[in-house]
Structures are given as structure tokens and as C-alpha cells.
Design a protein that fits this description.
Order of helices and strands: HHHEHHEH
Largest sheet: 2 strands, antiparallel
Number of helices: 6
Strand content: under 5%
Number of strands: 2
Helix content: 55-70%
Shape: globular
Oligomer: single chain
Structural class: mainly alpha
Length: 131
């Protein structure tokens, strides 16, 4: 059902966004059928001050997917690894100017959602950063 939209990456965002590579890899893995995990999924409408902690949560959960993929030998293991590597590199190189305020949630405070919902939320959050 989602095939035609799965290859879509906004051209303007991908051109000069530090998360462009991450978005590309997320598009690759979002159709994966062999990743079956529940993941803490941050809200896409968190306060802008909480943007960095939210993004960090998503990348932290990518590590869970990566471990799952290594055990099960998923078809998309390399793409998952790429998301994790590119994301961590971007977080290291570009300390986002948000001081973590007390009202930002810890990753574990978010609801657990399935892989598909997690990836959809992750893409939304990253696209917001690319605007």
C-alpha cells in the first residue's frame, strides 16, 4: 500500500540537511517486514526545546533495532547500522543548542510502539529538523 510513498524524500530537505543521509536510510528500512520490536517512541509534537533529547531517544532505540537485527540477521541490518552511525555522527558534530530542560521526558517515559509507528515518528521528527 505504501510503495509509491516509500521512495519519497523531499528534495529541498535532502539538499542541505545534516540528517539527509539518515532520512534516506530510514526510507530504506521502513518497509522491512522482519523487524518486530516494541520501541519507546517520542512524540512528534514535543516542545522545540526538547528536540535534541527527542532525537537522541530515537537514535538510542535504533541501537535496540540493530541488536535485534544482528540476532535475527534482518535483511536491512546494514541500513539500520547506517542510520545509527550517521545519526550519532550528526549528534556529535552538531551539538544542538538546546539545554535539556527538566520538563523534557526521558526516553523510557514515552509509549512503546511497533516498528512501523516508530519509523514514521522518527521520519517526522527528522523532517522537522530539515526545514
Amino acid at each position: 500500500v505504501f510503495f509509491c510513498s516509500s521512495a519519497y524524500v523531499p528534495k529541498t530537505a535532502a539538499g542541505h540537511c545534516k540528517w539527509a543521509e539518515v532520512l534516506k536510510d530510514l526510507e530504506q528500512i521502513k518497509t522491512s517486514k522482519d523487524i518486530d520490536v516494541s520501541l519507546y517512541t517520542a512524540n512528534t509534537d514535543e516542545d522545540v526545546k526538547c528536540q535534541e533529547p527527542v532525537i537522541r531517544c530515537f537514535f538510542l532505540e535504533m541501537k535496540v533495532i540493530l541488536q535485534e537485527c544482528r540476532i535475527k540477521n534482518c535483511s536491512k541490518t546494514q541500513d539500520v547500522l547506517n542510520v545509527w552511525k550517521n545519526g550519532n555522527a550528526s549528534l556529535e558534530n552538531n551539538k544542538l543548542n538546546s539545554t535539556t530542560s527538566a520538563k523534557c521526558k526521558e526516553c523510557e517515559e514515552y509509549d512503546e510502539k511497533n516498528f512501523t509507528e516508530f519509523i514514521q515518528s522518527f521520519v517526522k521528527v527528522i523532517q522537522k529538523e530539515c526545514k
